[in-house]
Amino acid sequence: MRRVKTSRSSKTKSKSKHGRLNKKVRNATPLRYDGIDFKSKLEVYCYKQLQKYKLKPEYEKITFEIIPSFTYNGEKVRKMTFTPDFVGKDYVVECKGYANESFPLRWKIFKYHLLTKNIAYDLYLPHNPREIDEVVEKLLIKRAK
Length: 145
Fold this sequence. Notes:
Radius of gyration: 17 Å
Largest sheet: 4 strands, mixed
Order of helices and strands: EEHEEEEEEEHEH
CATH class: Alpha Beta
Distance between the termini: 57 Å
Helix content: 25-40%
CATH topology: Endonuclease, Chain A
Number of domains: 1
CATH architecture: 3-Layer(aba) Sandwich
Number of helices: 3
Strand content: 15-25%
Strand order of the largest sheet: 3-8-9-10
C-alpha cells in the first residue's frame, strides 16, 4: 500500500471519486449534501444560498471543452476542459477557497473560450461565504430587473 505524504499544514485529505488523493483541491473537506458529493464546505454553502433564493444551481453538470485535442509534430495533445462548480441560466459560479497553481491559467482560458464562442455568462469567483452572499445578492438584483 502506498503512503500519501502530506504537509503538516494540511489537516484534511481530499480524495477523488476513485479513492486517490485529489491534488487539485487544497485544504478542502468533501461533504455530501442533498444527495450531491461536494468537494468543499464552501461549495455546500454556495449551493444552499443559491437554493434558498431559488436560483436553480446545477452542480458540476456542464463541462466546457476550452481547448480541443490536437496533434503537434505527430504527438497527440489531449483536450483541456473546465467544469465550473455552478452553472445557471446566465451565470457561472466557481467557488475557490485556495486556487492551485493551474487554476489561474485555466480560468483565463475559460474566459477566452466564452468570449470567442460568444457565450454570455456572468462569471463569479467567490473565495469565502461573504463573497458568496455578495454574488447571490447581485444575481437577485439582476433577476429582479
